[in-house]
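[job 4471] stage=fold_predict status=RUNNING
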Amino acid sequence: MNKSRLKNLMGVLSKKNIDGLIISKPENQYYISGFSGEGLTIVTDYQNYIITDSRYTEQAKNEALDFEIIETTIGTSPFLIGFQIIKQFNLENIGFENNFITVKKYDELKENFKKINLVKTDRIIEGLRVKKDSKEIDYIKSAQEITDKAFTHILEFIKPGVNELELAAELEFFMKKNGSVATAFETIFVSGSRTSFPHGVPSKRTLQLGDLVTIDFGARFSSYCSDMTRTVVIGKPSDKQLSIYNTVLQAQTKAIEYIKPGRNCKDVDGVARKLIQEHGFGKYFGHGLGHGVGLEIHEEPRLSPKSKDVLLPGMVVTVEPGIYIENFGGVRIEDMIVVTENGYKNLTNSEKQLICV
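[job 4471] inference complete, writing structure tokens
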């Protein structure tokens, strides 16, 4: 556990007059305690607890050394045990993760926490997670190194006659053989006109000469994610394919170059969006430019036209403009960028000029 994270959290809670916090989101539990199993984490100024069942008790003891581990019995609500903990310290205002908890769990929480003032915390830990420390950045960098290697590897297999599912399986297998504990998200591997699906899933479609092929994928290293997208072409690109590709590449390049601390995320999005519009493809770019990456594949901040976020040193964001034309195909290029004290560093090293396989 990083003790400074817990200290920072308690400082934020104190300013909001919150006496303790019930943490149920797995990524937030891991961030604060180091525990990667299933359970409930409770932090207070007096003592910190992880409530879990027998499947994870030993794991919790090994991972969360500074937390008291309480094992639940079958049929006993973790919230009831949490209430008993809170009650012994006479705490009054207890925060909970209203952005994560289900309605059913909220009803269970209220039932067990009678006479306690439950306070919505509105992504309080996510706010701490938005800036990565050097160790977190190293983990993300390691995940991206695996991803870059996997891209180089899969280029050897992209050819007419192979289907998308086979290629996605080969890609994921290679990442796991090279240190990825899991994929960061469901791999997107689409070809031909299916590249117009921004979140298309691999199918049995067989690749053909002249196809665009879009691959959006990521590895997970020590719980941290990577995320990258590349689009290649089988054979010689058509003039239209080349025009779309070069537009996306220029938009991404300009947006990345604009990144530095203090810049508004919506303005970074605007740099790419303006260029794409100027080239006549504005209506074909329908999503935000990028998002934060860390323990989750989609985190704050958001690079989008409506974002109110401001870039700060330590943030890790994707920059991924795309153009998607129905029944024709699409192009997306995505890199992961670390915001530094004076500008940015690109963690993605794979070639971005159009690759013809």
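[job 4471] summary: Residues 132 and 151 are 25 Å apart (CA to CA).
[job 4471] exit 0
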